[in-house]
Amino acid sequence: MNIAVAGTGYVGLVTAVCLAEQGHSVVCVDIDKSKIDLLQQGKCLIYEADLEPMMQRNRERLVYTTDGSSAYRKAEVIMICVGTPEKKDGSANLKYVYEVARQIASSIERDSVIVVKSTVPVGTNDKLANMLEEQLRSLNKSIRVSVVSNPEFLSQGTAVKDTLYASRIVIGAEDEFGVETMRRLYEKCECPFVITDRRSAEMTKYAANDFLALKISYMNEIANLCEIVGANVEDVAKGMGYDERIGSRFLNAGIGYGGSCFPKDTKALHWLANYNDYEIKTIKAAIEVNEAQKIRLLKKAKKTFDSFAGLKIAILGVTFKPGTDDIRDAPSLANIPFLLEDGANVHAWDPVGLDNLRQVHDGELVYCGTIEEALTDADACFIFTEWEEIKAFDLHAYPRLMKQPYVFDGRNCYPVADAKAAGILYESVGRHGRKERSSS
Question: Does 384 share its domain with 414?
């Protein structure tokens, strides 16, 4: 099929490349010429495993352009994958979605399916369908257009796998033309198809993401209580995870979630409920718990250090999770400003996220090429991302390199007993040292 994808951000680029991998011809559209220039050179815009080799392998099926009108003119399927950034009130900014839809209506010359993969509030696809119908009528175009909600469920770091081997495909459509076209689009996908109406598909995206955010915040609350009563949250999570009704994923306690989805989607659903004179109390609580959890390590450190003024503080990991260079809403961003304001000399290490951090804190801290560089002569260390390089790092190197081996681990990278046996003054989340067993 001939596909056009509007937007070459995370969702758009991954979707386009994976569709090309499945044999479709795909035109990627973006208004940012610098992005398109890099893509035309075969350079991947995001850090995502397996994506760039797949781009190279399918370069004959992929076209990159800023000319949306030409791309949309003959496309059988047009996928809207533009950003829906958060407004100050927590609602989603749909400006870019509507801009693309208007350009599509003025450009298309054949029957087509308009697929909205961007995360949008419930009812947005219906509004888009009405807008497109009115615009096509005003342009005297006798073209059949079906607007379909097709939310994505990819996870950064495993986005290619999540797309090619999806757990399910949700199709929200109001006519058979839309449903059958989407079935042809995804005919190589061996997974369940959930066929529903547009509003239910839109709600499915929010409900799924927000449930995972709830699960994370719940476990962080349990972890905080474990510290108070002397329990070990990892043992608690293991005991819970064997229950098939609960499952073992998203039970790892830590310092909160971040990224481009959970923070934005929880706030958007909270806003949507309030807009309709309803309050989802669990979502409100998840948002509040997560914001407080992000600075929990800092509060622990404040019990040891009255002030960070003049101290060298090592930061290990700045992205919101391993496997990505994304720092949006990462816990590191909630902590670094406090440390800088208190007068700390911050030295940060991350295998892929430092360039993005420089855009936020240019010249305000030291960027390190190795973990050892960050730790040398440090008075304290904060771990914000559970990179494998950190988990595999020699525990005995902390006291050897640091001036004072205070390590505040927000991702529970090490067994407590092992860390303490290595001479580390170690704090983690939801674990009590006296009950921790050595990994050996």
Answer: yes
- The C-alpha atoms of residue 64 and residue 39 are separated, in whole angstroms, by 7
406 in the same domain as 371 = yes
Kindly state the tokens that stand for 281. 């109390």
Neighbours of 439 (CB within 10 A): 8
Three-state DSSP at 258 gives coil
Domain span at residue 285?
206-293
Instruction: Yes or no: say if 94 and 120 are a contact pair by the CB < 8 Å rule.
Output: yes
If one counts the domains in the chain, the total is 3
Q: Say which residues have a Cβ less than 8 Å from residue 24's Cβ, sequence separation at least 6.
A: 1, 2, 3, 61, 185
Distance CA 340, CA 361 (A): 10
**How distant is the alpha carbon of residue 392 from its chain centre?**
24
Domain membership of residue 253 (yes or no) is yes
Q: State the catalytic residues.
A: 261
DSSP code string of 13-71: HHHHHHHHHTT-EEEEE-S-HHHHHHHHTT--SS--TTHHHHHHHTTTTEEEES-HHHH
175 shares a domain with 246 = no
Q: How far is CA 404 from CA 79, 315, 344, 375, 393, in A?
A: 53, 14, 15, 10, 17
Written as six digits, the tokens of 388 are 């494998």
Which CATH number does the domain housing residue 90 bear? 3.40.50.720
Q: What is the residue-level pLDDT of the chain in tens, covering all 440 positions?
A: 999 999 999 999 999 999 999 999 999 999 999 999 999 999 998 999 899 999 999 999 999 999 999 999 999 999 999 999 999 998 999 999 999 999 999 999 999 999 999 999 999 999 999 999 999 999 999 999 999 999 999 998 899 999 999 999 999 999 999 999 999 999 999 999 999 999 999 999 999 999 999 999 999 999 999 999 999 999 999 999 999 999 999 999 999 999 989 999 999 999 999 999 999 999 999 999 999 999 999 999 999 999 999 999 999 999 999 999 999 999 999 999 999 999 999 999 999 999 999 999 998 999 999 999 999 999 999 999 999 999 999 999 999 999 999 999 999 999 999 999 999 999 999 997 444 444 44
